[in-house]
Each structure stands twice: as structure tokens, then as C-alpha cells.
Amino acid sequence: MKRDIHPKYYPEAEITCACGKAWKIGGTLEKAEIEICSACHPFYTGQEKLLDTAGRVEKFKAKKAKAEATPKKTKKARVKKPAAEKAVKPRPKTATRAKPAAKPKTPKK
Ligand SMILES: [Zn+2]
Description:
By secondary structure, the chain is of the alpha+beta class. It has a domain at 1-63: Rhinovirus 14, subunit 4. Helix content is 17%, strand content 17%. It contains two helices and three strands. A three-stranded mixed beta sheet has the order 2-1-3, with no helix packed on it. The longest helix has 14 residues, at 56-69. The relative contact order is 0.09. The structure holds zinc ion (ZN). Zinc ion is lined by residues 17, 19, 21, 36-37, 39-40.
């Protein structure tokens, strides 16, 4: 190992989860607080749980309720153009790129 480049190692670092579970592992942080762990993650518990620290779920629900309360805007019925108008129009002239003239060959010496 190279000297003086490694962080301090704590063989008994304490990890605490927001759900209350705590355990000790080896790590470079003396203490760490985490939001989710295997004791409370829905993948392991099989129960639905919303982690909502910023109130985003409430915000979304309020937005959804508001959207449901207000009637949706109805789309304007599209008016079909008469078939005559749809008739083939002459194509606009596209500028044809002229081929560059072949370079005159310089005689080899
Ligand atoms: Zn947890």
C-alpha cells in the first residue's frame, strides 16, 4: 500500500438507518446515517412504503386532484380540406448542383 494516501479506516463504523436499525461495519466514515436499509426497503419487506422527505407525493396528489376537478379542454374538430386543394402541386425547382468540372490534369514531369 502506498503511504499517506489512504483515509482512516474505522473497523467499527456505526451505521444508523432512518427506520431505527443500527449495525456496525468497517468503513472510512466513523458514523453514517442512511435513509433506507434491507430492514425497511420494500424489496426486502414486500410492503409498499413511500419515502417522502420533500413532500413530493402530497404535491403530486394535490396537482392530480386539481387536474381532475377542472374539465379537460376539448380538442377542436379538425376541418378536412377539400380534395381539390390536395391535388398535386408542381414541385418547386430544386437547384441542381452542377458537377465540378474535372480538373485539368497536370502533366507529370
Ligand atoms: Zn432501514
